[in-house]
Amino acid sequence: MKNNELLIEKAYLNGEFVDSYKTFDVINPATGETIGKVPDLPMDKVEQAIADAEAVWPAWRKTLVGERSKLLYKLYELTLANREKLAEIMTLESGKPLQESLGEVDYSASFLIWFAEEAKRSYGDTIPSLQNNNRLMTIKQSVGVVAAITPWNFPLAMLTRKVAPALAAGCPIVLKPAEETPLTAIAFAKLSQEAGIPAGVFQVLTSTDAKGVGKLFATSERVRKITFTGSTAVGRSLMEQAASTIKRASMELGGNAPFLVFDDADIEKAVQGAVTAKFRNAGQVCVSVNRFYIQDSVYDQFAEALAKAVEQLKVGNGMDERVKVGPLINKKGLEKVQAHVDDAVKRGAEVRVGGKALEGTFFQPTVLTSMPNDSLIAKEETFGPVCALFRFSSEEEGIRLANDTPFGLAAYFYSENVRRCQRVSEQLESGMVGVNTGMISDASAPFGGVNQSGVGREGSHHGLDEFLEIKYIAYGE
Ligand code: ADP
Hints:
The protein is α/β, with parallel strands linked by helices. Helices cover 40% and strands 20% of the residues. It is built from 15 helices and 20 strands. The strands form five sheets. The protein has a seven-stranded mixed sheet with strand order 14-15-16-13-12-17-18, with helices on both faces. It starts with 10 loop residues before the first strand and ends with a strand. Adenosine-5'-diphosphate binds next to helix 7 and helix 8. Keywords: Oxidoreductase. InterPro entries: Ald_DH/histidinol_DH, Ald_DH_C, Ald_DH_CS_GLU, Ald_DH_N, Aldehyde_DH_dom, Aldehyde_DH_Superfamily, Succ_semiAld_DH.
């Protein structure tokens, strides 16, 4: 860690790294050690940052789109050139295995290059008039100052997914990273400075007063758009507050993803997909599977194969290359996972593998069978390394159980029958469906949820529209 010059214990305000404030500790969840201290900014600095962002908007939105594209491309190159350094910081502050952090850097960079290209394609329309000889057209323009709040589970990807399209669209953006993982965001700010992103266009505000900063972001008249990834409870509160200024809002919130295995599935592939979709980041992913629904006739076969695969997963400090499952982010996360497992067992579930907390905030990779439908896991996101196997008999019942939730982010299912694949994917109430795959994230695809999992889409060409307003212009004869 000594030679990692991207580990900077400062906030990034209006083009400068600043540190003359009281600080808070950033903790390595694998060891409990403090790995850095960053400024706990007072609220007037947050206000100042928003004002500075507003001040640079007129110049930034006027830059040629080709110029913004080049800056994003430069930032993409710098991100990849610093892959190991960024990944190291990410593993130290989030606990995720180093291989996953390296993968996250690549995934994060893919948003930078994607939006470097999409920036150039924010096309408007020309429209035939119905009424007279007016000539009608639309153009797309930046919405204005964007405020972003990001979570700890993907310290870099959740950031580039917002920052890249905002910059591409011509919006300045102020970001408050999660207090658990601010160092990755600060490292990225350093790269943005090196890339030549002008002062005030991208700022990183570190604070422990999430509620206060959130309120300021949501209610400030200077901020035209708020973009948030995190829990549904916080998203709901931010939307309520944002209503006071009729602010545009994108919300990527919690999920409760179902994973159905039908009797005509390739069980071996389904097990592989299940492990991918469940154990990435120790299950602390909003698209992690929370509920496995397995059809009666293949239930035992699937449960046995999954239990075998899960027993192989090595738990430990993410800096150890053999480790597949790191710690949970903190004690609160661990307690929730334990409570969900205990509740399931109390209601009659059987522990096939794991089921217990280990030292620190580590939890054993776990497989539970005979899950009752009234358990907590059926209703709430567990956010931990627990596979809970429910049973269903008919396709209709499987779909009904999968949809029995107010959330609708991701859903997965396995079947080799193409007609069933079409039928089921159309009936699942979620923003994203993985058919015979446990891996759905892709910068070129629209990521987002329905119902209480959120509003808006990130990534893809839709992700750029979230930061653009449509202006209609009529030219008379
Ligand atoms: P999690 O439970 O995954 O930490 P949160 O929704 O609490 O999810 O956190 C996601 C982000 O929201 C973090 O940056 C956190 O600091 C921030 N946050 C937490 N509470 C609030 C709040 N009341 N208002 C605004 N932001 C908040």
